[in-house]
Amino acid sequence: MDIKEFVEKSIGQWRSQRSxxxxxxxxxxxxxxxxxxxPISQEDASVIELCKASGVDTQQIVAPFKMSWxxxxxxxxxxxxxxxxSVLVPVPDPKQPNRGQLLREQGYAETMAATGDYRFLEDGTxxxxxxxxxxxxxxxxxxxxxxxxxxxxxxxxxxxxxxxTASFSSEIRQS
Amino acid sequence: MDIKEFVEKSIGQWRSQRSxxxxxxxxxxxxxxxxxxxPISQEDASVIELCKASGVDTQQIVAPFKMSWxxxxxxxxxxxxxxxxSVLVPVPDPKQPNRGQLLREQGYAETMAATGDYRFLEDGTxxxxxxxxxxxxxxxxxxxxxxxxxxxxxxxxxxxxxxxTASFSSEIRQS
Lengths: 175, 175
Known about the structure:
The structure is a homodimer.
Chain A: H1 3-10, E1 12-22, E2 27-39, H2 45-54, E3 65-73, E4 81-92, E5 99-104, E6 114-120, E7 126-131, E8 135-145, E9 148-157, E10 163-173
Antiparallel strand pairs in A: 1-2, 1-10, 2-3, 3-4, 4-5, 5-6, 6-7, 7-8, 8-9, 9-10
C-alpha cells in the first residue's frame, strides 16, 4: 500500500459511527456523521498555500484531498452539530515509499495547521502520528474491504504516556 | 513481539470500555466491564483437555491463560449483565515465531470451542482470525503503553465480505 492507492480507495462518501471513550471518567460519546473525501488539484490555491506555509516543494506532493464532515454527537444529550472540512496534502518520503508526511490545514485535536508523520504497516494499515504543543494524536486507519474502513484515534498527553481519549470509527461507503 | 511476551504484558486486571457498532442499523452499544487475565499451568486439566480436543501436542503450547470478564451493557436500557470466562492456549508456529494458532474453550461470537490463527504485525499488533460455521471474527489488539490496550473486533459474515458488527475496547490496567 502506498499513499496514492490509500487516498484513491478513500475517495467517496462515508457514513461514520464514532465512539469516543474519555478514559479518565469512563464516559462514552457517540457521534454519527457523513464524511466526504474528494480529490483536489495539486494546483489548488489551498494546496499551494499549505505547501508554502510548511516549506514543502509542490513537486514532492501526491494526491491532495479534501475531507468534509457533518455529524451529531450525543454529548450533553445530543444537540451538538459537528461540521468542518480540511485540506490534506501527502508528502511521501522519496527514499521510503511506505512513509511520509501529511500536511493538514486543520487538525482534529486543535484548530491550527499541523504536520503529521505517516507510515503503512505490512497489512496496509495507515498510521499517522501528529505532535501538537500539548498533545499528540495517533491515528490508525485500515480497510476491512473496499466499502468498510476502521479508524482508531488516540489523543495522548504531550509526553505520550497518558491516553486521554480513545475513539473508534466504523465507516461504510455510501458512494 | 512474540506470543509469550504478549501474554505476559496482558496478565492483570483491566477496566474496559467497549463500544459496539451494529452496522446494519447504525446502533451503538456501550459495555463497561472488568477483565481478568491470569496465567494457568500447562498441566491444568482444562488446558490438557483443550489440546486433546484440538489434536495438539501439549509440548507445542506456550503461556496458556484464562480470561474472565464481568460487565454491563446499555443494550435495551442496560440491565444485561455479561459475564464469562475462557481458557486460551497459544500454539506458536515452530517455523514462524510471529504466527501460530490460538485454541479457546469458548469464543465471543459463539459458545463453542474455536481455533483461531494469529500473527503479529511489525508494530506489535496481535491479529487473530477465527472462522466459525456462519461467521468469521477478526480481532486486533495492541498496547499503547504497558497500561493501555486497544482491541478492535469485527464480526463478518462467513464469506468475509460483509461486516456485521465492529467493536472497539479501550482497556486500562487496574492491577
